[in-house]
Prior knowledge:
Elements: E1 2-11, E2 14-24, E3 29-33, H1 40-47, E4 55-60, E5 63-64, H2 70-80, E6 81-85, H3 96-106, H4 111-124, H5 140-152, E7 158-162, H6 170-187, E8 190-194, E9 206-211, E10 214-215
Parallel strand pairs: 3-8, 3-9, 6-7, 7-8
Antiparallel strand pairs: 1-2, 1-4, 4-5, 9-10
Helix pairs in contact: 3-4, 3-5
Amino acid sequence: MLTARNLTKNYSNLPILKGVDITVGKGEIVTIVGSSGAGKSTLLHILGTLDTPSSGEIFLNDVNLADLKGDSLADFRNRHIGFIFQFHHLLPEFSALENVCIPGYIAGTKKSEVKEKALFLLETLGLQHRLDNKPNQLSGGEQQRVAVARALINNPDVVMADEPTGNLDSKNAYELHHLFLELRDKLKQTFIIVTHNEELAPMSDRQLVMKDGRII
């Protein structure tokens, strides 16, 4: 489903990625681990089109992402790639339900369909009693589940998660990883997860280790 070949990334004369190859299949949970500075987040941001490689190519369902620019790239990203970040990035002025709906509205899907899907996702994630709560009225674990629902609203091919448990206590972190497993089983959802949590990483289907800008 997703294939990247010989990805490199340089900042000035500093090489961050040094020829990374990665293939991820549909319905697979892949974790990327390694020490700080190994290039994990840089790789994830490039795979998610939030950054561009210095060289190499990425294909998502046979689409060469290098062929997409500007609005076309932004539209493709919104429709096909979901994101979960360590600090949630929920919009504080909107409710949980509204936060989840926003990417669907941007995609141009009918508002009634977006709301129906958002309600389904929030109920699936155990947040049916928190629909009208704003982020500051939610616990850290609840905020992250809202972020998961938002990432899933457009039925993305792949969800990219950058340290999704990094801001959670051990109980909520464990529950979130189990949630990823359930979403893989129920929805055949694909995840690529960057994590420092070496206890939780083995729960994935496959674990990749990065060191000095390479997968070893």
